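Sync notes, pocket subgroup
Present: LS, DG
LS reminded everyone that the earlier model was apo-only. Rerun requested with adenosine-2'-5'-diphosphate included. Inputs:
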Amino acid sequence: MAQAGGTRGRARCQKVLQISGDRNLRAASAWQPRRRRRRRCRRWPCARATRGRCRWSAWARCSSPLVHEATKNAVLAAIEVGFRHFDTAFMYGTEKPLGEAVAEALRRGLLQSREELFVTSKLWCSQNHPDLVLPSLRDTLKNLQMEYVDLYLIHWPVCVNGPPRFPSKKEDAVPLDFEGVWRAMEECQRLGLAKAIGVSNFTTKHLDRVLAVATIPPAVNQVELNPAWQQRTLRAYCADRGIHVAAYSPLGGQNWDGQGNAVLDSVVLAEIAKARGKTVAQVALRWTHEQGVTCIVKSYNKERLKQNLEIFDWELTEEDRLKISQIPQRKVVQTSSGLFSEEGEFTSVDPAELNNVEE
Ligand code: A2P
């Protein structure tokens, strides 16, 4: 269970969905509101606590009005079907449509108050400088039309000079000031602008560096995680240190490496799905949920949104779990190929320091 600073001891439960149509899109997720939680969950997410109240997640660098509108509509659809946790990021470009959708949901009475939501956003690599953290969070809050985020994450253990851009130029990468940036993150929490703080795409080595200086330890590490990239080492490390793990791409992502989708195309998962009368996506989400990991799953499709919530009233068998544990492992999103353009060179930073792959 994720606990840190202001969130320590508070149960937080979730189920997530993301909306996306292409690589540039990604978004949100929704959690059980804290004030309605009476009992502490043993696991995060907790099926009992989230039944009928789920979260949703999407990402999008949506400069186009069409994508903006699609994102907003998908958030509204997600709220309607029960998602309550929304995961966004400055770089996705989904903060504004998410904020608009929430405002609209409040106007329409789909939500009674902002407190019913759990909203996560993330600090982009170009703002990973101590003096830029707080201004960046203020920009995020302005985009979201909100007074606070429930969780603010360092998006990558990567710092680049220059304006926000994706992909970044290799020569713009500079060493990340883990201590200075984490101090600034802690200040965001102390000011009440982020109820909790954490990281994303961090390996155990990156986490070591944060924990060495942290007054408030990271509440969450959000990473690529699914049956085809199970992150056993990282999960064990985080469990020992009380850091909650959240999974992006729990359905295997969008063929970013051109090698197909190791989750949705998995024969092992398909066999289990057939035997259980579920879809492959549901088996993947259920497995992730059973690991005590929060799923950041996105869909723009209302039927799939609903389907992705139907994972709480059944469970995998021991035999299913054993088969899933033997699925060949393959990480898709890698720092140097994922974040940086192909041309150019790293001049001020050792690319090994940026590596986010660890068995
Ligand atoms: P769609 O929006 O058309 O439903 P990621 O792993 O990067 O989060 O991407 C999730 C992808 O999985 C999205 O493209 C989404 O497409 C798709 N998706 C979401 N839910 C399901 C589902 N239940 N079955 C199949 N595909 C799904």
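DG: Residues 18-20, 249, 251-254, 264, 279, 281, 297-301, 304, 307-308 surround adenosine-2'-5'-diphosphate (CB under 6 Å).
LS: The mean pLDDT is 84.
Action: DG to write up.
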